[in-house]
Amino acid sequence: MQFKNTFVILVAAGAVTLAGCARNVGSGAPKAAGPVAPALSAGTAAYGGGGIGSQSLGNNGPIGGGNSGLTAAELAALPRHLRVHFGFNSDSMNANGQTIAAENAQFMMNHPHVKVRLEGNTDARGTQEYNLALGERRAETVKQYLESQGVNGARISTVSFGKDNPLCTQNDSTCWARNRRVDFVYSGGYQGQ
To answer: How far apart are CA 119 and CA 116, in angstroms?
Structure first.
């Protein structure tokens, strides 16, 4: 009897421990866009990027994509900024991020045969699993914003690279801020409605 009680207690303790470790990352319906950060939050305001002139369009990190299959007119009309930056541990866009996303939404509305892949990225801090989930939430936030501006969701795909696609590798706050981003990667040939 003593053995049976001890066995039941051990099995129950193991089940409770395993249930506490369970995580369901990246499944289920996307959550609603988070609250808007203040206009001067550190995410995008601290990054004084110069827009397309300071970015290499084909260089969105070591594994990020480049724009492809666009006509000369579409290339000429690309928005000035193809990146939205985020604050530490955040998937909320601030006012500057929303302005950049709105410019990209307008570009997509004006060019109905263009599709976009939103590449979510994080800085190097945190676990691989956490950063992959955070990168996906950031990409989903931008996707939901584009859809709220009238862009058909069928033209938008998302991917998370987590911390595996850095723009820079220095171990400082400036570099970390540059890496917390969603990149817009455009391609042509969308044939849907």
So the answer is: 9
Percent of the chain having pLDDT more than 70? 67
Q: How many folded domains does the chain comprise?
A: 1
Residue range of the domain that includes 178? 43-48+60-193
In the predicted structure, residue 193 carries a pLDDT above the cut 80? no
Question: Amino acid identity, residue 179?
Answer: N
Say if 4 falls within a structural domain: no
Q: 117-126, pLDDT tens digit by residue?
A: 999 999 999 9
Instruction: Give the CATH number of the domain where residue 110 resides.
Output: 3.30.1330.60
Which has the closest alpha carbon to 53: 86, 81, 83?
81
Tell me, yes or no, if the pTM score tops 0.85: no
